[in-house]
Amino acid sequence: MIESTTVLVVGGGATGTGIARDLSLRGVDVTLVDRDGLSSGTSGRSHGLLHSGARYAESDRVGAEECIEENTVLRSIAGECIRDTGGLFVQLEEDDPEYFEEKRAACEAIGIETALLDADEARERVPDLTPDVERAMWVPDGAIYPSRLGAANAADAEEHGGTIYPHAPLEAVSVVDGRITEATLGGTVERTIEPEHVVNAAGAWAGQVAALAGVEVTMAPSRGVMVSVAYDELDPVLNRCRDPADGDIVVPHADEAVLGTTSVPVSDPDDYEKAAWEVETSIEECAKLLPPVADAPTVREWWGVRPLYAPDEAEGDRRGISRGYFVLDHADDGVENVTSIVGGKLTTYRQMAETTADHVCESLGVDADCETATRKLPGADDADRLDELVDRYDGQGPTDKDVIAQ
Ligand SMILES: Cc1cc2nc3c(=O)[nH]c(=O)nc-3n(C[C@H](O)[C@H](O)[C@H](O)COP(=O)(O)OP(=O)(O)OC[C@H]3O[C@@H](n4cnc5c(N)ncnc54)[C@H](O)[C@@H]3O)c2cc1C
Question: Does any domain span residue 131?
């Protein structure tokens, strides 16, 4: 079977579904494909922290600004796809007080709201917080349920004329005279798509998808583990206030606390070691903030792979590689109708989608404004409806397995 589409989006994570929604709302005909269910890649396997930007404030001002902007937008459009928990940056006895001050000043300069808590006030908010707490800083962090977010974006794309194909891996493309003319889908969909433009939103797999068109995109994926333990006493996100390191974030869910994470380079995002030390370190380090999690039963653990982009790949744990995003126009690589979007964060998916859609619209000659920052996602205020959408797209990932109605 042969179908035509204006834009073929490859990848059904937050970024790809966000792009499909954005383009559909601008009146562009879109087909989105994922090789598996939606959110089966990194989006559904992340820590699920809705960043306030405080984590990056002193080291990456642009990234922090993107986070607080999108944090604010998602609070108004995403309803039950997120949870407003607030967050604390916690300084322990062994942590550098100057780092705390630097972060607080950077948050204030950027416009990220903060409130200073002394040790007693911090322990009032979180009674099980370690006695080693020196002080803490409240910030507007939250939790994201990525399965719901991806499904709601996909549903809005479909409601505005788009086509969503889960279980449809892109297997091959034909490039004729510097343009992709045909894309071959396998899986349960098995058909050929004739696109005017292709968007590569395949996250950590973006290099492999680009290679199908003979284009090089150098990814530097890095894995991390999350350990979810049974613990229902935590309200805000806890962040250790020190230079980012292993096991410094705890994300609260209703009956669980999600501990993590690590950062270890991998060469293949589908085939990598899952080291026991990463699980142990995540628990040990998070227990320095919240001691009861050391003995709490583990409910589940999962791994994800960051879609880091590094044309000049750095050595080490890859924490130093930018978490920013990059829109790559491949005309200079000899294929004029392909755009890749790489890097970024779950928190900033909508902005990544907007920037990509702006670029694609310009190359298609479409003059239409982005509407995704102001239009509520479909079903946003109805958790049951969102969970039906997750089911429709086979979109259940481990990050929010405890939240989504089965
Ligand atoms: C351990 C860890 C913790 C993280 N925690 C956070 C956090 O707390 N907060 C935050 O904001 N960010 C976090 N991130 C980062 C964030 O999760 C990612 O940046 C984001 O989810 C990437 O989304 P994406 O849509 O670009 O990629 P993905 O979600 O990976 O989507 C890409 C999709 O492409 C599909 N695909 C691949 N090849 C093909 C093909 N040939 N044909 C069709 N489809 C294909 C895949 O199946 C996949 O679904 C974390 C990342 C990791 C690894």
Answer: yes
Candidate from 8, 31, 35, 46 with most ligand 1 atoms within 8 A of CB, to mutate: 46
> Mean per-residue pLDDT for 123-140?
98
d(CA 56, CA 149): 23
Please indicate, yes or no, whether residues 381 and 338 belong to a single structural domain of this protein. yes
Answer yes or no: do 123 and 230 share one domain.
Answer: yes
State both tokens at 348: 């900033």
Domain enclosing residue 292, as ranges: 85-142+222-305
Q: How far is CA 39 from CA 36, 71, 183, 305, in A?
A: 8, 20, 22, 13
Query: At 223, phi and psi to the nearest 5?
Result: -90, 160
**252-284: pLDDT as tens digits:** 999 999 999 999 999 999 999 999 999 999 999
Structurally, the chain folds into a number of domains equal to 2
Cβ 67 vs Cβ 201: under 8 Å: no
Residue that terminates a domain, selected from 270, 305, 340:
305
Task: Tell me how many degrees the CA angle 129-130-131 measures, rounded to the nearest 5.
Answer: 115
Predicted local confidence at residue 343, as pLDDT:
96
CATH number for the domain that contains residue 358: 3.50.50.60
Write the residue with the smallest CA distance to atom 9 of ligand 1.
49
62-118 pLDDT tens trace? 999 999 999 999 999 999 999 999 999 999 999 999 999 999 999 999 999 999 999
Same domain for 374 and 324: yes
Alpha helices in 221-373 (DSSP H): 276-289, 349-364
Q: Is 42 in the pocket of ligand 1 (CB under 6 A)?
A: yes
Please work out whether the CB of residue 13 comes within 6 Å of at least one atom of ligand 1. yes
Kindly report the protein residue whose alpha carbon is nearest to atom 4 of ligand 1: 46
Same domain, 22 and 160: yes
Query: Which of 22, 36, 39, 47 has most ligand 1 atoms within 8 Å of CB, for mutation?
Result: 47
Domain assignment present for residue 74? The answer is: no
